[in-house]
Amino acid sequence: MKVRIALLFLVVAAVAVAFLSRPSGSAEGPPVSTDAVRVGVAPMSSIPDYVGTAGAKLAALPAGDSYALVAFTTYVAPARLPELLAGTAAAEVVARVPLPGEQTEILRIPARQLPDDVTAGMIRVAERKEREVVAYRSREASEQNLTGAADRAAAEAAELRAGCVCIYAAFVRASRDALVTLGTREGVRVVDPAPEVTDPVRTVLLPPLPDQTDLARPPSGR
Fold it and tell me: What start and end residues bound the annotated signal peptide (predicted)?
């Protein structure tokens, strides 16, 4: 009996570790390690202070290539990315469908080739959302509160399939000079260098949302 209890404990512990290793809000791609580096603005922290600190980091960045989190002033479509991120090597973009009054999913999409990788990633997420709609609809009779979730997932899928204007940040790698130039480009809100990052997979990205100017909060669900 004791052996069986011990084995059960080990299985539960392994499942817990696997769950905690998955990135919150990440739709596609490999899981993020629990010892991941966080880049961006912490929840409920001052966005103006973050922008100022990131600017100082960029000014003091030593020569050489470095990863950086790039936040945009507005949501953009995939087609705008090659121009916005010119001179850098993109790794990922951060996106969400900005539906009024809805707290939609924050997505990390691989973006090596712009804009094709992003468009393909949006289609993959749309397909997942469409499967979610089917699952929600099949359970609506017994769980009425799933109607809103199904409608939201359907709206997200439709927008993503259409290549929506929903990208608000990117994670890139470039030289110091290229990152400085990027920071002056119209449409770029802030460039936050992260020289400590060696692997984007082991990184948690926390860019500010375009419509937030004071504190970093979750997307509004009101």
Answer: 1-26
